Hints:
Number of helices: 3
Distance between the termini: 43 Å
Amino acid sequence: MSTTHTHHHHPNFHPPNYKKPGAFDVLRPLRRLVDNFPVKNSRFAHVICQVIPCCCPFERNINLLGRTIHIPALCKLNPLYDEFVGLRFRALSYLADECGEDVTKYIC
């Protein structure tokens, strides 16, 4: 007997920074600037990896009076979050692939 599992996506789900086609995005020039910023210098790549955290520094659990309170990751509220993550990834890739450096110290 074979069972088939299907996965249905919610019809209204969109990634966090999803904009409807034709919608006005005031941050588009800044998004494009960060997305197209070249990483061609190892010192600059190291600075990017040090400044942009690998995971959200705000997410944590707090124990208070025997109860655990979870503070969710707030980084997704940053409208340029995806662009900064991409820039950090390009910097890591540059250091590892082009410079042959060990980047494990920058990975959570």
